[in-house]
Amino acid sequence: MATRNLDQELDTLRADLGKIRDDIASLARTLGDAATAEAKAGGARINEAAHAAKDRAQRFAESARTQGEDSIAALEERIEQNPITSILVAFGVGLVIGKLLDR
């Protein structure tokens, strides 16, 4: 009779261990799914930030290009308005650079 109780308890213990094993496997799958979802969300946030940074860089490059073109146009206009002064300034700058390079 004691052997029968012991056998029943062992069977119950085996069944409980099987349930625990199944619960642990289910928990591992759930944690894996949650980690995958979080990684995907993080990737999406990084992608959005990279896209925003690219847009800002493009706007900055366009602004710099526009300012550069405006500066060149203003310089050309000043040269056209004062051609002799421009030639003398260019000659002076060339002379100074030539002297510096001779050393």
Describe this structure in words.
With 103 residues, the protein is mainly alpha-helical. The chain has one domain. The protein is built from two helices and no strands. Helix 1 packs across helix 2 (83-102).
Explain the layout of strands and helices.
Layout: H1 2-81, H2 83-102
Structural class: mainly alpha
Shape: rod-shaped
Q: Count the beta strands.
A: 0
Query: Any idea what the radius of gyration is?
Result: 39 Å
Q: Which regions have little confidence, pLDDT < 50, spanning 5+ residues? A: none
Q: How do the SSEs run, as a string of H and E?
A: HH
Fraction of residues in β-strands: under 5%
Largest sheet: none
Q: How many domains, in number, for the residues?
A: 1
User: What is the averaged pLDDT score?
Assistant: 89
Distance between the first and last residues' Cα: 113 Å
Query: Helix content range of the residues, please?
Result: over 70%
- Summed up, the helix count is 2
